[in-house]
Amino acid sequence: MSDLYQMGNRDLQDHFNSRKLADRLEEMIVHKEITERDREFIESRDMMFISTIDEVGSPTVSYKGGDVGFIRVIDSQTLAFPGYDGNGMFLTAGNIAANSKVGILFIDFENPLRLRLHGSAAVDLDDPMLSDYTDALYMVRVTVENLFVNCPRYIHPHKKITKSDYVPKAGRPAPVPEWKNIEELKDVLPENL
């Protein structure tokens, strides 16, 4: 029985006669541990997309960015990344607290390549790695269930022009984002965010 495919996947695979292909791809590319090649790719990323699900099954997807290396591979089963100041909604972290299942998509837009990772995550407000990251509020650790390189043919190549000025840097306060100056939000904006 496949860990990757569920009934909805199987129904469409059968409709389009791709079940054998899907099974072969699962055999060939899906693995349960982070390889050295995966680690190099993951740690070279300065952004990722993470999907989470809340306690009633509603999904969300978030962009997470930082300096290259903000995502760290701890061992062959675990990766970690910091949670930075956002908009105070805590959709990703709150969903992880309610439902640990996550999907992460790492993309190289300049040399089209993507890696999918499925796992279970936990948010830690006191993680010892917090001190390694300027302005991190918490750490997220993800335990890998499976991961695989995915076909990049529909990735539109893009070139990075510059890094975001808002990425935390040691010894430099981050600039204040424009939305924090919206008059209707000033009276409810926490001092620490």
Radius of gyration: 19 Å
Strand content: 25-35%
Q: Might you state the CATH topology name?
A: Pnp Oxidase, Chain A
Nearest-integer average pLDDT: 94
Secondary structural class: alpha+beta
The CATH class name reads Mainly Beta
Order of strands, widest sheet: 2-1-5-6-7-4-3
Q: CATH superfamily membership, which one?
A: Electron Transport, Fmn-binding Protein, Chain A
What is the 3D shape? globular
| Biggest sheet features | 7 strands, antiparallel
String of helices and strands: HHHEEEEHEEEH
Report what the structure shows.
- By secondary structure, the chain is of the alpha+beta class.
- Helix content is 21%, strand content 30%.
- It has one domain: Electron Transport, Fmn-binding Protein, Chain A (Pnp Oxidase, Chain A), CATH 2.30.110.10.
- A hairpin with a 4-residue loop joins β5 (101-108) and β6 (113-124).
Distinctive features:
193 residues; alpha+beta; Pnp Oxidase, Chain A; 7-stranded antiparallel beta sheet; 5 helices; 21% helix
Task: Give the topology.
Blueprint: H1 7-15, H2 19-29, H3 36-43, E1 47-53, E2 59-65, E3 72-75, E4 78-83, H4 91-98, E5 101-108, E6 113-124, E7 138-150, H5 183-186
Antiparallel strand pairs: 1-2, 1-5, 3-4, 4-7, 5-6, 6-7
Q: Concise description?
A:
With 193 residues, the chain is of the alpha+beta class. The chain is 21% helix and 30% strand.
